[in-house]
Design goal:
Length: 255
Amino acid sequence: MDKVVASAADAVADIVQGSSLAVGGFGLSGLPSVLIEAVLATGIGDLVTVSNNCGVDKFGLGMLLQEKRIRRTTGSYVGENREFARQYLSGELEVELVPQGTLAERLRAGGAGIAAFYTRAGVGTQVVDGGLPLRYAPDGSIALASEPKEIRLFDGVEFVLEHAITCDFALVHARVGDRHGNLIYEKAAQNFNPLCAQAGRITIAEVEELVEPGEINPASVHTPGIFVQRVVLAENPEKRIERRTVRTVTDEGTG
């Protein structure tokens, strides 16, 4: 039952070339940065990632992008990352853009063993009609476009069929975890970490605080240990602010 491994390097040692990774985090909140750095250090590439966003330049999944280790990524937001945009537009990176709520539900469905579901999100758009550029050619033409999706009427209303997402591995960050893999996330880190944790066939959790079984109130658990295979202690991980803004203070002390 003790799922704690000695280091992040040990935790990701069996991630291989071409593996698919569901990676938690929302913006820069709750990123499993220690595990991502460990994956970077392995030197493996051709990775397929699923994450709400792909980090920023040289941080989070942006570190893997910078070294061209990611072949394809699925996400809902691609801003704040110039290298991401450059690779996508030059045809070096395959990108599937998904409405944020749909992405969340596809991950949740994967963890719940649901093969697919119908949703209204995207009906009447290219999300359904197909033709969205998944990969560009070097000359700027579309090398690979999205396929049309199945539509079905329920009570006279159109819904689109979306398929669940499961990945070979999931990398998540939790504020607290115990040796059995029960996890508690903090604030905005609750957005995609729990969903990714359920969608991985092997889920690896980095935790800021490791406690003994029984120390976490069962009612406070966000991800039950049944979904987690490995736990690694990541004390004092780097946490960045995605965009810092300040206001001008006048002599009177008011903005």
